[in-house]
Amino acid sequence: MADILLIDDEKSVRTTLALMLQKMGYRVEEASSGTEGIDKFKTRFFDLIITDLKMEPMDGLAVLREVKTLNPSSEVLVMTAYSTVESGVEAIKSGAYDYIQKPFEKDELLLLVGKALEHRNLICEVEQLQNELKEKYKFENIIGNSKEMFEVLGMVSKIAKTDSTVLISGESGTGKELVAKAIHLNSRRKNRAFITINCGAIPENLQESELFGHVRGSFTGAIRDKRGLFQEADGGTLFLDEIGETALSTQVKLLRFLQDGEIRRVGDVDPLNVDVRLIAASNKELPKLIEEGHFREDLFYRLNVIPIHLPALRSRKDDIPLLVNHFLKRFAEKENKNVTAVSTEAMKIFTGYHWPGNVRELENVIERAVILTNHNTLTPEDLPQSLRDTLRRGPDIPDNLGEQTLEEVEKHYILKTLDKYQWNQKQASDTLGISTTTLWRKLKTYGIEPKKKE
Question: E-strand spans in 62-184?
């Protein structure tokens, strides 16, 4: 039950109200002056303060302002026998939940007390949810002690407070959205919307409508006005994942927003101004897309104000034990299982595997292992056969790595794996540790024509 501090310089009023509130189950503390009330408030927490307005030397408005300075989550009700519209408005402007005029009915006060406490509980629930989100996406959850990750975290901490456009690059599964959320939640926009969209998941003919909105009648099926994601993110942050998948016509509109802060809905003649911070990400090399004519060079330079590159997991293997323990703890708690350790043999597999799916793949492997294991310690038997086979066999990669790009090495390894399984994409993707959809996309990226199984 709630704790209430009752402040009034008339003892009879305090006694009557205290008895009334105690009968309803509330815990009540009394104070005969504003100064005494604030002294008590400094020593313990109260959910609600009910204070008289006309007191000496510290009146109710002064009490209200001091309470809101010391602990804004406490609600305040102001009582007055000298009520005017001006005094009531001033109290509410200063942060009071409401005010009530003496004399008042018992039920009137109890109803107001109940509503004030309900309002406080709602605010606390919202704050708790926000804190949980901040905890989930705070910098400390971008796990890594490697030099590469320290550089990433240092960059994120520097740019979070700015409104600069950010371009995050890195392979699929390296945590680009996690970094974007960390930037947002540590910025001045943290209490506004964070909206994310995978540009590759939207058909080209719908991208402009989805991002910028449209007006009724602008095309077949546009039966009403539609707000785009830029409008939904107004005041907050818009994260465009896989920006390289946007159509050239969409890129023109993105460029206009970055230049002028304006968007134009499909079919509309008037531009709209929006206050949106743009964070973009791509797992493709945008300069290469520019050479191929698939991405605008001027848009790239507008996006690339602050570039952040997330390293692949295979290039920061020192971070793997940290990530393993982090995910192990998370999924053990989620599944309510007493899985507390990883065997030396299993850790060798984790650190020796090449992780084509990066951190996301590692996370999925540990979740699966925690769910399926019957022991307190993860062992090699709890891991997918593809991980154990790859470690035992060793990746079939050419020796002259220094003369080949990462893409060439990956392409070579994919082709070798497909040849081994007679181009059975399901078996190959299982061995590679990626989904068949990801394998198909990589084949398309490298211009490899799928062969029929023999």
Answer: 75-80, 98-101, 166-169
